[in-house]
Protein 1
Amino acid sequence: MPSPRFDLDAALAAWRRPLDQHRAFLPGDVDELEEHLRDHIDRLQADGLDAQTAFREATARMGAIVDLEPEYEKVRWTKHRHRRNLWHELLAEQTMLKNYLTIARRTLRRHKGYAFINILGLAVGLACCLLIGQYVLHEWSFDRYHEHADRTFRLVFEEHGEDWSDYSARGPVPLGPTLQADYPEVDAVVRFWRGAATVLGHEQTFFQEPDLYFTDPAVFEVFDLNLIAGNPATALVNPGSIVLTESMARRYFGDTNPMGEVLSHDGYPGPDSLTFTVTGIIQDLPTNTHLSFTALAALEGIETEQDNWGSFKPIWTYVLLPDGAAAAAVEAKLTDFVTRHAISEDTFRFHLEPITAIHLGSVYRGAFKPGSNRTYVSLMGLIGLSILLLACANFINLSTARSLRRAREVGVRKVMGAQRRQLVMQFLGEALLLTSVAVVVALGLQALLAEVLTRLGLVAAFAAPSIGWLALILLGLVLLVTLLAGLYPAFVLSRFHPAVALQGLKKARPSGVNLRQGLVVFQFAVSILLILSTAMIHQQLDYLRQKNLGFDKEQVVVVPYSPNEVPLLDALRQHAGVVSAAVSQRVPVNLQRSDTRPVLPEGFDEAVSAESYIVDPAFLETYAMPMVAGRGLAERAGDQESFIINEAAVERFGWGSPEEALGRTLTWTNGPTEGPVVGVVQDFHLKSMHEEIAPLVMHQRPDEQWWRSFISVKIRPDQVGETLAFIEATWKALTPEGAYAHFFIDDSFAQLHEAEARLEQLVGIFAFLAVLVACLGLFGLAAFLAEQRTKEIGVRKVLGATVSGIVLLLSKDFLKLVLIAFLLAGPIAYFIMQDWLTNFAYHTTLAPGLFVGVGAAALLLALLTVSYQSIRAATADPVKSLRYE
Amino acid sequence: MIPKVLVAASVRPLMLSILDHGESYGYAIIQRIHDLSDGKLQWTDGTLYPVLHRLEAEGLIVSSWRKSEVGRRRKYYALTPAGQQALETEKKYWLDVHAMLLALWGPSPQLAGA
């Protein structure tokens, strides 16, 4: 008789619940068994049994879970044996994968401190690596975005004399057109001529425009410039045409349409009557190009010096060839070209330089903007890789250290029938989880760091690599880091024999110790290397800042030349805040103008190349340049032919001593001017510290206008602001159509060494991060080892050991490692830095004190890191620690 | 009643043989063996499923879930070519054993001669 209260479905659900929760049964397995029961119960009911009895009989026949479970468990391993393929296993057994991740998650949650240190260390390492990767990619991407990048070349020039060489990126004016006329294989030629002392104006707005270039119409064909308005075929054809970048157009015209508007022009080259009509607008240039201009004007119509093949080389010439391979053929013909056009003696050479090679390490002098340095970029790449390795080393280190702790777990798993491959999978799963979290954290950190570095002006805004690239790089990184960081612990842990593992693995220790010690040494070696580099770069920059430049760079402000020179100088000189004021062609440690001329010293048959410097008599006083012999220049009519030279020139001309040089005759060839040397000025720096002080010839040309570029004003240190305001007001009043701007000479000097200052800060930041990662690792490791020795410490304390004795015991192993790291890193740092210093003609020497200081600092840092753990372990109550074990 | 060891040994050829007649599902297979043995083979039904799973893992049979004519979900098993081959091998073993036993027990010249 059927029981009215029996619910078959509920009974079946209750029956299957324990099976569902048992790991031996996969979901489908239990379904199958339930269907079997239902079939059986149907049959029994058909035979006349009531539902409850049928259920009882069927489940009894089915067997108890304890009977079924071992059978199912056995089959599971059979399945594994038959699926050898790891990938297949991953795909087919999502359940297992989920299981690994669950275990990983639980393990991490139980050991938060360990997880935190591991994730943070890895994240910092990854963020640095990403950031540096982005930087390296950015540097590498320069000028590759042009469609014809692979067949566009810059013409560069070499001139070799007996004991001098000149490598220059700029050449004579007629070169480009002549080349195109001579060689039909040249598809296009583009020339750039940078305007000098350019001031543009629109209505009452005037600005200095140092980045105005005169160029050929083919510029749109050769380079990828995004023309927003205007016709590329005609925009730069007519004389007086100008194409502006968006931001420049906005500066003059605001939101009104600039097309067809007129800009006034003052500057060189070009006829005095030149005015510009806007014929096109281009997007601002991206950051990853060696080109740098805010406006392009038609070269047509302003061309002068068309036949000058001589020393006047103001023009960059670019050629577009049919393909990259044609370069060698064209280059071969250039020797013949030189002879045919009688350009110069056989000292002159042309080369073709691929535009993609310009940014990273062109040896040719003179570029649109300072390039980068292949060595710096590879150095940064190396640093990035080292920090990544460091972070991975940490990960491996901590994981293997922790493996001892988990040996018991591994033992239990093995006894329960876990296979080695599963254990490997499980540890890799944990590594994957950690690295994934670390990647997310790293992305945030990287964005933050990039923002900070850009704000600090340490890096230019990167031309962002496309999302695909970034994703690919990330994926690669995650896999690489997981493998690197997960494989070793995975294999070491899974190798333990269960019997050994269950004993707690005291004896299996030594093998891991060597590796871990090696990793600590590696980490500290990299950190010490970076700290030493930072310190040494800092020392060199300090040296540069302190070095006597041969003139006084403080409180000298430079303003543009004003045509109303006389009243302006009078007004300035009468002001109480002004010490002295002078007009000159160039100013020291500023590369806006340069002029190298052939001069013929007495007793020479051939001209010698020398820095030429045209000044007014007040110049030497304004810069407080000391005379070594003779006198300065005077405002006497007869003094126009007098020369002042520097000590390097005395040496170069072979005139013995400065005193002996006085009275010798010198000919300044492009003038020409011939006259006696009346004074020798002490050597002073014209350019950066990378370059040696060159022979220099100084004289005045009061009757000529062309050289007048700058007015330098030496002001008193008090009331600087007021004096500056006075200078500006006076200048503007006397120069109604001029663009006022001023700069300080000491800023100019700092700008010359900006690249080095940036390097210092960048390496400093990365050194800090590397140290952080290394200390995190050391901290974790120390914590672990102190914990390992809890029992030993307890026993020692009970037997009367002092706290300091125990701290020393726990710390000294680490200190030994740091010492080894220092011995490794020291010499490497020394050689790298020695090499770096040879970039400078003037550099500091490496002091041993620096090494000692950095070594001591590293030791102290390691001691501090370790001591927290050591002291905690040493001061622990032995009763507790002994009970704990 | 047939002892446990023998039951365990014979389940495998029995199942392969049943599936050789066409695909079938767990309950039907087990019921068929039950009917054939006339209750002389005793087991707990649940332990037969792992045997099926093992055969599947070895690639001798394949399975698929399907709705039966009465609307119930059932996991059907079918023999693969490898399973066919395995059945042939099993058959040979059992026939060999059978022949040996027959030779010893039946009216045979060897025994008679001894």
Protein 2
Amino acid sequence: MAFPLSAALLDSLVLSVVEGGDTYGYELTRYIRDCTEVSESTLYPVLRRLMKNGLLECYDREYMGRNRRYYHITTAGKGALGGYRRDWEEHKRCIDSILTKGGAGQNGQI
Amino acid sequence: MDRSEYIIALRSYLGSRGMQPADVEEAIGFYGDIIMEGSDEEFERLGSVEKLGNELLAQSGIFVGGEGSYQMESAFVPGQQSSTFNPPPEDPAAQAKRNSLLIIIILIVTFPIWIGFVMGMFGAVFGICAAFIAIIAVLTIGGAALAVEGVIQMFSILPVGLVLCGAGLVLIGVCGLTFIPLFRLFIKFIAWVCKTVFGQLRRLTAGVSA
């Protein structure tokens, strides 16, 4: 069963992949598909939004006679990614407290 | 269609439907690698040029037929023209009023420049007309003087008197035939100039006060 990804989670995944090294669209899509099923038509608007918000920037590099667009995380993007990671840890802890960590005994139910 | 042709067709499709060139290059930059390097399944999943193109156009806020749907708003950057930002059509009356006001302001500001030119033009036209009238008047008076002299001479030297009288009358006749139509033309020209200038002024002031 697949859990749907929120826009914020998708943004954080993209930022995290790009933080590891400048990358281009197809490579980015393959990385993210390793953990969740996502299409190119989903990722492209995410990249545009992140660039519009100044969290990513892009540059072109020639590859086999055509321009390949690479994405690079900005300082603002690194800051946003840090916030996303803190929020995710908190969110994961809350979800795990109900879903995996003993249920009622751990989170005060009953 | 092979993959290279697909990219060319996609670029053309997006450009012809109003997507900004920078946005077209961004889309091609992203999808180019998928198109050229993706597996057959990945390439087929993109769909036809029209399908992918319409998706990209919709993401840019450009709809090509079909039902509208909610789209993320494009960022509006002041001073940057966007293909997705279409201001509502301006009221024609308001536009005419603004244009009239603008013309009046321009006329007032550039008054020192154009007034000299206009006055010079009028002066030149008036001078030419005045010179012409003076020439006609002089010739007419000259002709009258000749005719009178001719009549006087008829009592002493008849042939000379007849010639002078005749020449004087011919001169008067030629001047009269030339002057009258030219004078009428001159009056018509002055009337046309006044009508044009005052008509424009009336239109400008009417446009401003509307």
